[in-house]
Amino acid sequence: MKAKFLVRIFANWFHSWYRNLIRHPKHRWWIIGGTLLYLLGPIDISPDVFPVLGWIDDGVVVTLLVTEVSQLLLTQLKAQKQKESVADANQSSTETVIDVNAVSVS
Question: I need a surface site. Which of 36, 56, 61, 101 has the fewest CB within 10 A?
């Protein structure tokens, strides 16, 4: 019971640490490159010689990398769309508006 609790605390700490580093523009490419190097390199926390156990750490790292990179891309796309909508709103507000008094014909 206590071991599960400690594993959960470590996993939450590692996830928040990784997320904070990858979201920092200065460290982002170093973290992505280090993650890819870890996945492609022969040195692992759990070697791939052990059939299932060796693949679990790679799967966790890949999942974490893909999740964080996709979140970064979605955030950038939303910011870009918001800039475009603000630019469109500013452009439409500077256009000339013609007010017409409509008359009903019966």
Answer: 101
